[in-house]
# Entry
Amino acid sequence: MGYPVPMEQSLPDPNVAFGDHRCPGPSYRDLVLRDETGVPAPVLESEYRYRGSEPIGFHRYTSKEFAELEFEKVFMRTWQWACREEHIPNEGDYHVYDVGQRSIILVRDPQGKIRAFNNFCLHRGTQLKPPGDQGNANRFTCPYHGWAWSTSGKIASLPCRWDFPHLSDDDLELPEILVDTWGGFVFVNFDPTAQPLHEYLGVVPNHFQGAWDLSKRYVELHIKKRLPCNWKAAMCAFLEAYHVYKTHPQGLRATGDANAQYDVFGEHVSRFMHTSGTQSPHVAAAQTEQEILDFLLGRRFAGLEGRPIVPEGKTARDVYYKISNEQLANKYGSDYSEFKVADSIDSIEYFVFPNGFFFPGARICINYRFLPNPDNPDECTFDLLFLRLPAVGQPAPAPAKPYFLDINDSYTTAPGMDPGLGGVFDQDTDNMISQTRGFKGSMRTAETLGNYQEIRARHLHQTIDEYMARP
Ligand code: FES
Ligand SMILES: [Fe+2]
# Structure
């Protein structure tokens, strides 16, 4: 289908209320309802309301004072994922999670329970395990004077104990942090009065069931990259598909970008969903389903023998999802029979406040985490994970170790990274550099957001404000 009015010239209808305007043409929902497999139930849900059009001040991204307060009020009070359960499968396995100036040791204790302890010595403060460390230990020993703790957080050794008659064993227990799991992720919360994780996650545990159960997957690839912008600016680059037509035009002939669906589910969760295998509303010329399929396969399956044909009455999506899942099954030996068209090939992205992104898709099976840099609000750390289903009947491989990239390193240089996708992430990084210059140099002091396509960015800022307003 083509679009009669070029999108650049499409104007808002003055008779429609703010927040009710939508892209001309079919919606994401219209498109998936044509899929031959039917649609996963969560995909048919929708939840949007207008949340105002006020500008968002740039100081929120650049101010050191704002960053410090935000850390105390947001990161110290919210559930954030620290590692995967498979990072610490056995007794004594530990994993260090660093966030801001804080550091936590996650460890599997002798009872098989995951515990989270303050990673600093109770003697004179020294960090026990180095940042980013992981391994197996039966005690955590301070490198300075040798105080040591068991994997249950009890004091296990204190050289010259005679000199500390003022301290009891109870005084010497490592402070413990709340920990819980969902979807194979280990979450922590520094606030001992925090609401339970499963309540905090809102619709997410309900939606991520069956084929979407992330606890069945393993970390195939983990890239850790320093990014040249505030953690919120980096996240906002992934919260909307509005930028796709300008920043990533290479896929527009088969990407439903401007007609993506945006949802906000309660306080902590938002979502977008956009198609693969339908043309962007920005592409004015109508293409046949066959042309869309040829474009997709030409980009992603160059050299494929024979030319799959879209049968009469079927769509490019119907054919593409089968090819895509067959290719995945051949490569990974895993079973994709539970997946429908939408969750096989579309970009379905859930955000969980403050910094986690979870994709249930078979093909786009990624996960993001953004961590603020405690010393510099203009930088952050980005964890990019690919979560795959293991081969049928096989144990999951051990989780991939992180591969580090600095600001100027291309994602395409990470071993195992798909070059096309790596190029897409590089395009996003370029924007982050230019945008941060604007935060500091522009004659305007705030950004303006689209009412629908950028609702998730507004919701993020509003939720931060709510947390910052709490005593
Ligand atoms: S600072 Fe840790 S043992 Fe002294
Ligand atoms: Fe992007």
Summary: The chain has two domains: 21-61+212-469, 80-197. Residues 80 and 187 are 5 Å apart (CA to CA).
